[in-house]
Amino acid sequence: GTKRGLTFGKRGMGLEDEINAANDYYLADHLAVIHKKPTPVTIVKVDYPARSAAKITEAYFQKPSTTDYNGVYQGRYLDFDAKETKNKTVFPMKNIHEHQVQHLANVVSQGGIGFLLIKFTTLNQTYLYPAPELVAAWMQQEGRGSIQLKELVQQAYLVKASLNPSLDYLTAVDDYLADL
Amino acid sequence: GTKRGLTFGKRGMGLEDEINAANDYYLADHLAVIHKKPTPVTIVKVDYPARSAAKITEAYFQKPSTTDYNGVYQGRYLDFDAKETKNKTVFPMKNIHEHQVQHLANVVSQGGIGFLLIKFTTLNQTYLYPAPELVAAWMQQEGRGSIQLKELVQQAYLVKASLNPSLDYLTAVDDYLADL
Ligand SMILES: [Mg+2]
Ligand SMILES: [Mg+2]
What ipTM, to 2 d.p.? Predict the structure, then answer.
């Protein structure tokens, strides 16, 4: 039936798909302007066939130097990355790269709102984890080990269940902004 | 001599190179966190050779749906695109795409700071042209024709000459913010 189809559909949706769907919704409803950055690639060779589109025939993936998402929400600069883990008790630090932590620290020092959206897929729970807490944990543990979920939930903001968009993460941003 | 070399070096620098150099300078000096977005490409085929990096063997350029640059400066969200023209008396509207105007209008309505950096290469002058003026001109002329330089300079902010970075466009942003 429809319900099962819907459930299956949602199960198949990765965190980035959910965020992209939320961003489309926010843009259409004039709630926020947030986009995913394109995947950075180094282009080496391009063919220009007559009468058709330029075709890239050799390119390589680059390491991203920033996070995947940024934009503006009620005059505030938002900047974040999406992380998924199957782990049920900890968030392993290896999920995040040092340059992303550095970038989020830079964002915060410029007065921007930085965070991770972390989905614990097994628990089906997504949290907004603020950049200042992430940076502190990273420095303390020198980028190793993991953050206990028990500790993380004390500092993070749960994205509450919603239907449309299915991941209404701006409500967690509101909760975070209210505490700043 | 050194001076001539420097001048030649600058002559060869396109507007985007100048902006990227300014952004590197701003990041290193903790003045702003502004990055160019990667060129969006649709990836069709990827080879995974043993023992070497994944190689993209078929991909196509996508039309960008936003502007090229965004980031945060003293808590403000900045969003802009770079445009160059050899024209000495007008800025032709065909230099800008409708989706970019739409995006900048969205940014402004969320309280962000949107603009174009327009370089008149023959005059060697670069202006910050605010998004609200651009959107008004675009609507009035239905995306056609051009904006007279005489009119543009009334609404725009000249990026004053500087040595390091060679295009210190944040000074024009400061002038614009002071008028808001
Ligand atoms: Mg990610
Ligand atoms: Mg451009």
Answer: 0.90
